[in-house]
User: Which sequence fits this backbone?
DNA sequence: ACCTGAACACCGTTCAAGT
DNA sequence: ACCTGAACACCGTTCAAGT
C-alpha cells in the first residue's frame, strides 16, 4: 500500500502522541508506517520539512474566520485557538517552536491578529509588533504546560530545592502556581496582555 | 594541562560563538579543548548537564540587586538584562530555552520579579503568573532575533512569498517590522506588557 | 512512482586501560 | 583524578537496485 504525503504527516502526528518528539525518528516513523526509513525521503526532502508539514497541519484551524465581536474577544479567541491547537498533540508546542513559523497557517493567523489590531486604530507597525508578542506569550506558556505534563527524565520540582532559601512571597507564588489550573493561568496572562494592548490604542 | 568544570563551560561558550549550538558536539568541543570527547564526561554526567551549566553561566548577572526605582523601571531593567545576557553569545536564547529553567540564576531572577510585583500590591499567585509571562515574552523575542541573525540554511523572507495575497495592513506590518531596530520593538512590547501588569494592580 | 537494502558520516555515551 | 582509544547503539541521509 503506497503512501501519500498527507498519510505520512497524519501518521507522524499519531506517532507523536505515543512516542513524543524525541522518539520521532525517520526509521521508527517508517516502521510505524510499514516502510523503511529511507522511503520517507520520497515524500519530504528532509526531516525538517516533515516537521514543518506537521506543524502546519497542527495549526490548521487557527486562522479560521472570526465571529463578529469586540476586538478584545477576537484576540482572546485567537490566543485560545492557538494554544488549543498545540495542546491537541503531545509535544505540539515544541514541534511548532522548532519550525520557523513560515507555514501558511501561521501567516494567515498572524494576519488576522494584525487586522483586528489595526481595526482599533493602531498603526500596522505597532500591530505587527504586538502580534508577535502575543505569539511569544502563547507559545511559551503552552511549551511550559506540555513540558510539565511529560517531564523529560529526571526532574526535581524546583520548589523544594531552593524556594525555602528565598523570599516568602516567591515561595508562595511557586506554591500557588503548582496548584492552579494551567488554563486559568493562561487566560489571566492573555487578558493581561490584552489590557496592555488596550493601553496602546490612540484615544 | 588538566581541565576544570569551569574551564569546560567557558570554552563551550566560546565555542558557541564560532560554531553555533548545532555545531556544539562533545567530540568537537573536546577537540577545541585539546581533549577527546569522552573526557568531558569526567566533568559532566551528560551533554544536557553541560548545556544547563552553560545556560546558568550565561544568565549569571540577571538576578543582581535592583536600583531603587519605580516598579515599572525595575521590571523594565530585568527584561533588558535578561535579553542582553542571552544576546551576549550566539544561540544564547536557544541555549536557555532548551534547558528547563531550573538553574539557580533564573530562580533568583524570577524571585526578583515576583518581589517587585508583590510590592505593587499584587498577590503572590498573580505575581508569579505574570513573572512567567514576562519570561515567555523576553525569551520568545530574543529567540526570534537570534534566528534572524543566523538564518538556519535555506530561508526565504516570508514576506515575498505570501504577503501580497493578504491584507495590505499585514503587508505593511511585515514590511515595517523588517526595517525597525529589534531593540526598539523589544522595548515597545516590554512596555506594553508592563502596562498590562499595571492594569492588574488593585487600586 | 515508490520502496528495499545497504551503506556513509556522523552522534552521545561507556569503559577498560594508561599516567 | 583525568585522559586515551576504541567500541556500542543509535542518528539523518543517500542511492543503486528492485517492483
Assistant:
Amino acid at each position: 500500500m503506497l503512501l501519500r504525503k498527507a498519510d505520512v504527516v497524519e501518521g507522524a502526528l499519531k506517532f507523536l502522541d505515543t512516542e513524543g518528539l524525541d522518539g520521532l525518528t525517520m526509521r521508527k516513523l517508517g516502521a510505524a508506517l510499514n516502510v523503511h526509513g529511507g522511503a520517507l525521503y520520497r515524500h519530504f526532502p528532509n526531516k525538517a520539512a516533515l516537521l514543518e508539514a506537521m506543524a502546519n497541519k497542527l495549526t490548521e484551524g487557527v486562522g479560521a474566520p472570526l465571529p463578529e465581536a469586540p476586538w478584545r474577544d477576537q484576540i482572546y479567541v485567537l490566543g485560545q485557538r492557538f494554544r488549543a491547537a498545540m495542546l491537541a498533540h503531545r509535544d505540539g508546542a515544541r514541534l511548532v517552536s522548532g519550525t520557523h513559523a513560515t507555514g501558511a497557517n501561521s501567516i494567515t493567523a498572524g494576519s488576522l491578529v494584525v487586522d483586528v489590531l489595526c481595526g482599533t486604530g493602531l498603526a500596522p507597525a505597532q500591530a505587527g509588533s504586538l502580534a508577535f508578542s502575543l505569539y511569544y506569550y502563547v507559545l511559551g506558556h503552552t511549551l511550559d504546560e506540555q513540558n510539565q505534563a511529560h517531564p523529560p527524565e529526571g526532574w526535581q520540582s524546583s520548589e523544594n530545592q531552593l524556594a525555602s532559601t528565598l523570599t516568602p512571597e516567591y515561595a508562595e507564588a511557586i506554591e500557588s502556581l503548582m496548584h492552579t489550573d494551567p488554563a486559568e493561568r493562561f487566560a489571566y496572562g492573555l487578558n493581561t496582555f490584552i489590557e496592555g494592548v488596550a493601553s496602546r490604542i490612540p484615544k
Notes: Residues 25-27, 37-38, 41, 46-47 of chain B lie near DNA strand C (CB under 10 Å from a C1').
